[in-house]
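tool_call: predict_structure(chain=1)
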Amino acid sequence: MTDPFQNVDAAGPEFIKLFADSMDQRQADPIMERIVTAYLDHLHVTRASTVVEVGAGAGAVTRRIASRCHPAEVVGFELSKGFVSEANDRAKEYSNLTFKVADGAALPLEDEAVDAVIMHTVLTHVEDPDSLVAEAFRVLKPDGLLIRCDADFSKARFSSFPNDPLNICAKEFVREFVTDPFVVAKLRPMIADAGLSVRHFDVQSRVVSTPEHMLPWVDLTTKQMYERGDIGEELAAGLVAEHERRARNGSLYGYQVFATEVAAKAA
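tool_result:
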């Protein structure tokens, strides 16, 4: 299956609403808040600054950028019209924030027009991440920053013991919803090839123990495996029930790795 995040609108309104809510829930996770806050600490904006997020989704991170950068101009570019509509609905209180439909590899911006470009969990979902980095280089001012934060999906787990059946859901999610699970390993050489220099690189673990933060990994994958005929209705229901059981008794354990990179364009 093609990663649905490559064409979100084709996945339909139910998918858009589900993942808009999921992104908000994920960003409410204290671990993710710390990760985002840490990379936003590298920004030094003024009232005249322009900060762009590429692949903004429904705006969960873009709203945090706008809160921190206020009153600088913040623009969230997103290829999906459905996500942009959701993002606008969820950001009405932010006077310094706008969302626009645009391809991250062809931004409607002049050369050297922005002070910072942020890509949060984007590059794992595109076939040609180098084109997005090259476009970021084009629109960045000298000394401008490119900040990229992405999950190392190659290490994603739902395992509490050897051969944990719930880990099937993690493997299936990566297979069905991620274009390149190894992007994190390629971040630093990608930056060098683009002509940017790395100022900061950090990797942090994210342990998930509450049901909301990785629920689509179970709900969507079991539904798809059942609809394809890979598993029966009883097993699909059993995996969902096991996820709920662990959430109730405090034994739910999901694991992700997030890498953050801050790179600069030479003056």
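agent: The two ends are 43 Å apart (CA to CA). Proceeding to next step.
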